[in-house]
């Protein structure tokens, strides 16, 4: 197991490095002139050149790349063109909201998705048809449209929950849940549908396996057969989909934060794209990929725990 | 990443190409794709989805004709109107026609999604084929490339691209295609690896054909089906992302209409004009749903994709297949029997009808006795054996008869009550030892779980009992076996572990379903020895299901011969093996290599066991029987007591006479 985890950690570090490199060169080779974004379109040529020199933009891309990597290792992601503040502090400031949305969303997705998927697979009949049918429709609903609809129904019409705003969980749990319910639903439902479908197929596959029959033949209670043995085996392919959905939830957070006006990384990156603040965009891409790759590492380890074949092979 | 590569069966990832489709000349390939299209058109959902997408595409291409109102013309006097004759879907906050904006805005969204899907395919397929063909470091690079894009939220990559290259829908969609090529890479890679394993690729290389032409000629024809699925799924996902960008005001900047942008406008007017949310939402959901339905329909061959066919109360019941059966006299159950089966029938229901697979099976098992159930594959012997424990595969049920275990009928009992019998009175050992135990738990853990359930033992005692059972079944190192997973031990060891698990509840009867079929010959003998020893030491009754009369001769006291869902002969093994009264038993015996007459060809039984719905009206064995007459074929044959056993044959005397002749021939030879 230790060797397995070490190998996974190695792959994660390698992936972070590759992603950061790709992101850097995407940004470094951009054709847009950043100086006009900072100084405005009326700035003089001299002022632009001076700014370029000051920001080190005249250095060869490789030199800038190594200084960026050097900074990254020390936890420095550069300085925002717009606010002139370190990128790291702003990203870290905004991270908790986005993390809460995506982690909360993945918990909702996993629990709801697995339970409904297993019920669909084991009950069969009209229960299966109903769950499978609604999962198919829900999966086709764009999350930002769903978010606006939820606001319309629960905030505008029923006035049950706030239409926007955010309270951290640590400050006031009650208010947090009021503020987070709609965003979490909007972000998690489509992902839930994807997990339902995968969990259903995986459980159907497991149900047909000989060992399920063996376990039933030994007289074990049905709930143990399905929710312990069945689920453990079915969760192996489901975990992969949960990992993919976690990535999708981060993408969804960008949109959902816009709808609910939440102070997360998503609204930061939207604002940065609109003004061409490249260090900030780069910083967000790096930060998000690190979080996602760490989550993937966690899932890989969980995968090894659940699946002895992967761990021992 | 092994995990990522095992996702092929997931609905969102590329479906695994079907095995066995790679060989095939041009003719069969053409027929296959015709079938795929025909299959698609038989699904109403797929037809509707396809029709919707085609109509929408035409509407978007000929937007000026279909929606002549200029989507940018403002009319503030008529802002925020509900649908009317002038504005079919109403107007937005500036009085612009919503219908017209939807149709004109569809170009950027649908066209963008199509562009992204095609770019993804154009990049992904060659990369995947390269990785799969050259393997080694090329494959590693390609796979890592795919992993990178899988690890990043696509919309954030696109925002970085837009930040770098400016706000341009075409550039963004090409970038989206690059970011989504991962699914195509995995698909093409898996397909290429599979084709590469086939011999003919080696043959082609030897013949001097270049790798490129091999790949093009052999991979492309096989990849077509899964490719369409992936294309459909990718297009749906790309549509969603394009609209998301529009929602953020990127991609197609306002005031130009775009679906995502229209949802953004709707969200701004949510207090004033909530109707705005409806048309855009509906058209987007229907489009994405259509792509997904189409993808699902194309992929319906994959496991779990098949519809089980739901029957609702108001639907007409399915027809019941006609399967003629003779009324046989039922012998009274022996009161001393530990298991008494009387007139047991099992039926299955599929899409078209309900049909029996086991009909009116009766037999008794005495305490400590070994009973064999023998017959070819498809005779219903396994179904019968599992039905004794109330285990019936999905779609099937026991439709009649009794299974009396220790004096109580278990047919019709709820699972909760059946569980009290399972494991404690009657236990099962199944056919494939390597897959009979849960691969994610150690052998010891599964034994302990079952022992705890049956005996309530805890802790140390539990472990001691598990090791004791493993020792009983002849595990050379019980402690090591307990710590192992089934995939770490040999087939023979796995079968011993499965037998140990069956013994955890200290049952009176052990049902062994083809316990030696999957094992090597030497191991087979060991497992049979073990079963014999358990019978002697524990006084277990054993019901052994087999197609091998040798196993019956080796282990059993009595045997039940089954053919096409019925018992056709029953008696003590001694008489059954020396003077069979039914031509089927006789034919089975003659087809055993050990009974072959030297110098003469082995007597194989001509033909095959008919499928349940094709069971003949008369004697079910008649079409394959050397003794069959018109009388055999005209009416179902009852099973009656004759010559010391039970036999379902009207020509027993002829069969016995022929056997005597054959014995003489054999003695002469």
Strand content of chain B: 5-15%
Structural class of chain A: mainly alpha
User: What is the CA-based Rg of chain B, rounded?
Assistant: 34 Å
State the major sheet of chain A: none
Following the backbone from N to C, one meets helices and strands of chain A in this order, namely HHHHHHHHHHHHH
Provide a compact summary of the structure.
The complex is a heterodimer of chains A (313) and B (669). Chain A has 313 residues and is mainly alpha-helical.
Q: Would you kindly provide a written description of the structure presented here, covering whatever features stand out?
A:
The complex is a heterodimer of chains A (313) and B (669). The N and C termini of chain A lie close together (10 Å). Chain A is globular. Helices cover 80% and strands 0% of the residues of chain A. Chain A has 13 helices and no strands. With 313 residues, chain A is mainly α. In chain A, helix 10 packs antiparallel against helix 12. Chain A has helices at 2-28, 34-39, 45-55, 61-73, 87-123, 125-139, 143-157, 173-207, 210-217, 222-260, 265-275, 278-306, 308-312. The model of chain A has no long low-confidence stretch (mean pLDDT 87). Chain B is α/β, with parallel strands linked by helices. Chain B has 26 helices and 12 strands. Chain B has helices spanning 2-5, 26-42, 44-61, 63-66, 98-134, 136-150, 154-165, 169-179, 182-197, 199-206, 211-247, 259-268, 277-298, 381-387, 415-421, 433-436, 443-455, 459-472, 478-482, 491-503, 521-538, 549-555, 573-578, 583-590, 630-634, 652-668; strands spanning 339-349, 354-365, 370-374, 396-405, 408-409, 426-429, 509-513, 541-546, 558-563, 566-572, 640-642, 645-647. In chain B, the strands form 2 sheets. Chain B has an 8-stranded mixed beta sheet, sandwiched between helices. In chain B, helix 5 (98-134) packs parallel to helix 8 and helix 18 packs across helix 20 (491-503). The longest helix of chain B has 37 residues, at 98-134. Chain B is elongated and about 105 Å long. The chains are: A mainly alpha (313), B alpha/beta (669). The interface between A and B is large, with 98 and 101 residues.
């Amino acid at each position: 197991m230790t060797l397995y985890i070490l190998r996974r950690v190695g792959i994660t570090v390698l992936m972070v490095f590759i992603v950061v490199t790709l992101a850097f060169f995407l940004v470094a080779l951009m054709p847009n002139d950043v100086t006009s974004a900072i100084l405005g379109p009326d700035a003089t040529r001299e002022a632009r050149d001076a700014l370029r020199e000051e920001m080190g933009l005249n250095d060869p891309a490789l030199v800038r790349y190594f200084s960026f990597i050097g900074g990254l290792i020390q936890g420095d992601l550069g300085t925002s063109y717009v606010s002139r503040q370190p990128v790291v502090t702003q990203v870290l400031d905004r991270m908790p909201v986005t993390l809460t949305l995506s982690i909360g969303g993945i918990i909702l997705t996993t629990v709801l998705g697995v339970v409904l998927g297993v019920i669909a697979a084991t009950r069969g009949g009209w229960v299966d048809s109903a769950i499978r049918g609604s999962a198919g429709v829900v999966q086709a609903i764009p999350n930002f449209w769903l978010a606006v609809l939820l606001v319309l129904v629960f905030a505008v019409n029923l006035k049950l929950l706030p239409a926007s705003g955010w309270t951290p969980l640590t400050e006031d749990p009650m208010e947090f849940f009021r503020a987070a319910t709609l965003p979490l639903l909007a972000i998690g439902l489509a992902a839930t549908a994807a997990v339902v479908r995968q969990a259903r197929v995986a459980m159907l596959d497991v149900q047909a396996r000989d060992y399920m029959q063996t376990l039933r033949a030994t007289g074990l209670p049905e709930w143990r057969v399905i929710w312990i043995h069945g689920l453990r085996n079915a969760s192996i392919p489901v975990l992969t989909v949960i990992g993919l959905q976690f990535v999708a939830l981060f993408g969804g957070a960008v949109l959902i934060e816009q709808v609910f006006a939440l102070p997360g990384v998503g609204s930061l990156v939207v604002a940065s794209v609109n003004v061409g603040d490249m260090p900030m965009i780069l910083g967000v891409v790096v930060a998000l990929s690190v979080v996602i790759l760490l989550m993937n590492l966690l899932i890989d380890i969980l995968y090894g725990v659940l699946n002895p074949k992967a761990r021992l092979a | 990443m092994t995990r990522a590569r095992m996702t092929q069966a997931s609905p969102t990832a590329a479906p695994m190409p079907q095995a066995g489709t790679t060989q095939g000349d041009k003719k069969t390939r053409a027929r296959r794709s015709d079938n795929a299209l025909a299959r698609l058109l038989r699904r109403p959902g797929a037809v509707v989805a396809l029709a919707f997408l085609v109509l929408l595409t035409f509407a978007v291409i000929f937007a000026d004709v279909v929606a002549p109102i200029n989507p940018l013309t403002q009319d503030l006097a008529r802002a925020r109107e509900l649908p009317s004759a002038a504005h079919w879907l109403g107007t937005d906050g500036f009085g612009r026609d919503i219908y017209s904006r939807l149709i004109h805005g569809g170009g950027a969204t649908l066209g963008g999604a199509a562009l992204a899907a095609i770019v993804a395919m154009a990049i992904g397929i060659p990369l995947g084929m390269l990785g799969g063909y050259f393997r080694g470091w090329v494959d590693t690079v390609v796979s890592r490339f795919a992993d990178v894009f899988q690890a990043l939220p696509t919309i954030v990559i696109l925002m970085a691209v837009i930040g770098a290259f400016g706000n341009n829908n075409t550039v963004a969609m090409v970038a989206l295609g690059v970011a989504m090529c991962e699914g195509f890479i995995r698909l093409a890679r898996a397909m290429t690896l599979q084709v590469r394993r086939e011999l003919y690729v080696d043959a082609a290389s030897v013949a001097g054909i270049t790798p490129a032409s091999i790949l093009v000629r052999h991979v492309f024809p096989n990849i077509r089906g899964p490719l369409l699925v992936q294309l459909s799924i990718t297009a749906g996902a790309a549509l969603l992302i394009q609209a998301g960008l529009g929602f953020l005001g990127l991609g197609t900047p306002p005031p130009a209409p775009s679906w995502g942008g229209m949802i953004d406008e709707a969200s701004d007017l949510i207090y004033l004009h909530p109707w705005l949310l409806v048309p855009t939402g509906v058209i987007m959901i229907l489009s994405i749903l259509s792509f997904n339905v189409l993808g699902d329909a194309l992929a319906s061959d994959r496991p779990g994709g098949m519809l089980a066919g739901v029957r609702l109360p108001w639907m007409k019941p399915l027809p019941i297949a006609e399967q003629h059966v003779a009324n046989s006299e039922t012998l009274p159950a022996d009161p001393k029997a530990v298991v008494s089966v009387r007139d047991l029938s099992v039926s299955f229901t599929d899409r078209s009808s309900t049909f029996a697979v086991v009909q009116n099976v009766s037999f008794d098992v005495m305490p400590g006795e070994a009973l064999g159930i023998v017959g070819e594959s498809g005779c219903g012997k396994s179904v019968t054996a599992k039905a004794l424990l109330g285990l019936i595969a999905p779609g099937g049920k026991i439709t009649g008869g009794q299974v009396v275990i220790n004096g109580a009928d278990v047919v019709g009992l709820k699972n909760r009550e059946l569980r009290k019998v399972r494991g404690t009175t009657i236990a099962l050992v199944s056919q494939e030892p390597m897959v009979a135990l849960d691969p994610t738990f150690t052998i010891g853990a599964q034994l302990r779980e079952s022992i705890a359930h049956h005996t309530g033992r805890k802790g140390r005692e539990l472990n001691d009992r598990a090791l004791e059972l493993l020792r009983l079944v002849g595990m050379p190192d019980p402690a090591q076996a307990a710590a192992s997973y089934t995939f770490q031990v040999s087939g023979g060891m796995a079968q011993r572990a499965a037998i140990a698990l069956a013994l955890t509840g200290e049952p009176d009867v052990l049902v062994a379903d083809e316990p030696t079929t999957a094992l090597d010959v030497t191991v087979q003998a060991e497992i049979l020895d073990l079963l014999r020893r358990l019978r002697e030491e524990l006084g277990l009754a054993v019901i052994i299901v087999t197609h091998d009369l040798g196993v019956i001769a080796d282990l059993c006291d009595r045997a039940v011969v089954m053919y096409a869902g019925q018992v056709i002969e029953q008696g003590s093994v001694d008489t059954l093996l020396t003077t069979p009264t039914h031509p089927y038993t006789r034919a089975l015996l003659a087809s055993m290599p050990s009974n072959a007459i030297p110098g003469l060809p082995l007597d194989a039984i001509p033909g095959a066991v008919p499928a349940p719905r094709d069971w003949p009206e008369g004697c079910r064995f008649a079409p394959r029987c050397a003794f069959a007459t018109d009388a055999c074929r005209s009416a179902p044959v009852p099973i009656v007591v004759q010559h010391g056993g039970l036999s379902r044959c009207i020509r027993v005397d002829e069969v016995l006479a022929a056997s005597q002749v054959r014995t003489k021939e054999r003695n002469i030879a």
